[in-house]
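pinging the channel bc i need a second pair of eyes. not urgent but kinda urgent?? the chain im working w is below, pasted from the shared doc
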Amino acid sequence: MATAKKLITAQLDLVAVKEFKGDLTDALSKFNSPEEIQNYLIERYDSDSTGELTVQLDGETASFKWILPEVDLNAEKLHQQALEKAREKQYKEAITFWIKAIALNSRDPDYYFNTGIAHFEEKNYQESIENLEQTLKICPIYHKARLILGTVYLKLRKFDKAEYHLRESIYFNPQNPLAILNLGAVYSIQKRYDDGIFAFKRVIELVPSEPRAYFGLGKIYSLQGKIKEANECFHKTIELDQKGLLTPHAKRAIVAEETALSLDIQGGDGNQANQERLDDKQLEAVFAEAYKAYLFGDYQLAVELYRKYLEHKTKDDYVWFALGESFLRKGQPKEAAAAFKQAIKINPNKALYHKQLAIAYDYLDVPEKAIESAEQALRFGKKDTVVYTILGKNLLKQNMILEAIEKLETALKLNKTNLNAEYHLALAYMRNQDFDSAIDHLHWIINAKVKTPLKMQAESLLQKISA
């Protein structure tokens, strides 16, 4: 049953295109007339579906209209049922309704978009990506999908794709602070500090009470050695952070403008007299220097400084965690495990601490403890590809093959480029006498574009199967 039409509209801001530079900025700079710009935008944002796209240029604004000529009423009923389930946070049930709606009308972008959102809420990131990408394939001006897609790619550390979609989102909605904030985070990670500063300052213009923008700005200034500006941002973060989530990080990131403070932060004998000399301001300087040392890869100095801090404040779980991270980077998993265990003793409900302890035990090749820690990480909400990989890998070591396969498949479901999970899944299939599946996964590793020692291991394993 078909009736009516569905209209989707959007406006592209050409000022934002100029400010947040990308491939579209470069393309439009080549055109001199509104007609050329209009024709290019139609070509860029047209789709291969049955939707009809029109563009109207008015000064610095391009107005888009996209029309889906057929709407299936039965599919729309399923869509409404799905929305009701989603409002009740019953995302799995909502997804079921949207899948049925797609079966009736596979050309409606609303169904794919909402399915992508539901998968995002369920932390099924690969499924979210697939549905959001399909949304844009059908209707490229569906800019709400860009924001979510950019956010998912940021979570998965696929920064080039995150940047592209977040920037496109901003072109269509330059007043959205979340998109700009996330883009600023991408720029910061990519060490494109001027772009990051511009993005975070723009967020502050839009929402002066946004602590995350000040924190991001502070981190960039700190990395640039602009101590005064960094500290102003960190203090502003603390002032604005009503939920208190960023405050501990901001406090620890504050850098003393005279870092030595008449104190030899490189040394310290740990005796009582030395402990009595350190006040809170001096301890802030010690932590700040440790944090900086970690950022710049001087893990030995970071260890020394974190230890010095802990001589005076033994109940700071985050600093024990930071010490463990430094030991891990130094290649000392035994010491890292001891530090993570101390952090967990103080704060046993922190999923990240259990995850890092699992990583340390994995390095130490203690499978039963790696499994226990990974399961604790899952229990407290850290359900990412790394945790499932460690769990599957160590279950395999314990000869729990079917359980290992299940966990490793979940790891790959969360991140299809996880070659470590791919390799251990191939091992598990071999142990389960499923050689065809093992070969498929080994070929995937061998043909991967990234350089990794796993390729040689995969080739060796493939030869062993073929022998």
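so The chain has a mean pLDDT of 89. and The first strand starts at residue 2 and ends at 3. — does that match what u expected or am i reading it wrong
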